[in-house]
Amino acid sequence: MSGEPRVTIRDVASRAGVSRAAVSLAFNNKPGVSESTRARILDVARSMGWEPNRSAQAMKRSGTGTVGLAICRPARQLGLEPFYMEFISGLESVLSEHSSALLLRLVRDVGEEIELQRHWWRSGQIAGSVLVDFREDDPRVPELSRLGLPAVAVAHPSLAGPFTAMWTDDGSAVAEAVRYLAALGHTAIARVGGAAGLGHSAIRTAAFTRTLRELGLDADLQLATDFSGEHGARATRVLLSRASRPTAIMYDNDLMAVAGLSVASEMGLRVPQDLSLLAWDDSQLCTLTHPTLSAMSHDVHTFGADVARSLFALLAGDDGVSRPVQTPVLTPRGSTGPSPRRTA
To answer: For the domain 170-297, what is the CATH code?
Structure first.
């Protein structure tokens, strides 16, 4: 097998001067292009050494195919993260409609993922991929786009390069959360964020800082973590051990917020009388605690389903259209209340 990247529909379309949809119709012997155009496209493809992707061909013939998803998380942590469980459930709901399958692999780092995606694609194991956890200047963008890998990026377009992007407006959601806490009288608002290198963490960090400064409040109370409950608890202890501790803490996921609630109890603080807590990625976890956790809510299951539909449209020859999904909205519950320092 040659080590050269496979010639893609995009390559053939560019050389033949036609759309990718026209190339897809010609390859699959479907109506929509003239016989002369079909013949010209196939001649161009053969001259470029085009070989069909086995998995993609199977999808065209019988509606089946395999979709790849690589996640950089320890297996134990992934099993505890409601976000990915809901997201994968949404993907699977659409894959099952297409008699398709999900090929899921956990990787140690982005370099391992690049090699894995390259192997999956060149060996014909997948028809396309869903890419997650983008970083600023993510090395996957040039490497995987060079392969011609059909993929949907779960990321802001500023991070996704040429890939079709689907994302939540995290900046607007963070601003809404900060303004809500400020309206309750909180002037010392902290944030326990995710990994600093992740693109969506950077977007949330910037929005948090910008909104607090617009309100004339201290914007320096932010700590980065790995999204785990252990790190969330540790960050909460650090914040609550300060001489001037925050009266409200925002968390970048629900798992860390639950851990923060436990730490508040261990340190003798009442929620929300002494300390308000607000989670991201609302899930059942947030409704099982006492008090229940206020959260920024969005339908993660539907998000996963929409990403899968976008990928299947891409594989069918449609031009990928990047678009935002529903912005997370505030769901107040029992863990947020007026600041204890608020004056009447």
So the answer is: 3.40.50.2300
